[in-house]
Amino acid sequence: MSHLDSQTIQLALVAAVALAMLIQSIVLLAGLVALRKLAKSIREDLSEMRSAVLPVIENTRNVIVRVAPKIEQTASDLALLTRALREQAADVQAAADEIIGRAQTQARRVDSMFSNVLDTVDRAGTFVAETVAKPMRQLTAFIASAKAVIDSLRSTQGSSRAANRANGDNDLFV
After folding, report:
1. What residues have CB less than 8 Å from 165, skipping those under 6 apart?
2. What is the spatial distance between Cα 114 and Cα 165, in angstroms, rounded to a whole number?
3. Which of 9-13, 68-72, 163-167 is predicted most confidently?
C-alpha cells in the first residue's frame, strides 16, 4: 500500500461511509426498538391509570351532579340573607341616626335650660349683693359715725378729767 491512488482512497471513503451508515442504522434500529418498548410500557401504565382514575372521575361527576342543586340553593339563600341583612343594617342605621339626633336635641335643650338657670342665679346673686351691700354700707357708715361721735364725746369728757387732775385730783388710775 505504498501507492495510494484516488480509487483506493475513494473506495476507503465509501467503505467508511457505508460502515458509518451501518452503525447509524443499527443505532437507529436499537432506538426504534427501545422507543417501541417505551411506548408499550407507557400504554400499559396509561391503561392502568385510566382504570384507577376513571372510577374516581365518575364518582366525582356523580357527586357534583347531586350537590350542584344544593350549592345553587345555598348560594341563592346566602344572597337573600345578605340582602335582608343589608336592609336591616340600613334600618338600624336610620334608627341610630334618629336616636342620635334626638339625643343631640335634648342635650342642646338641657344645655340651654342649664345656661338660663345659671344666668338667673347670677342675676339674683347680683341683685341680692347690691340689695344687701348698699344697706350694709349705709349701716357701716352709720355705725362709724356713731363711733366717731362717741369717741369725740369721750375725748371731751377725758379732757375735762385731765383738767380736774391738774387741779389737784391725784387719784392714781391703774
Report:
1. 171
2. 72
3. 9-13
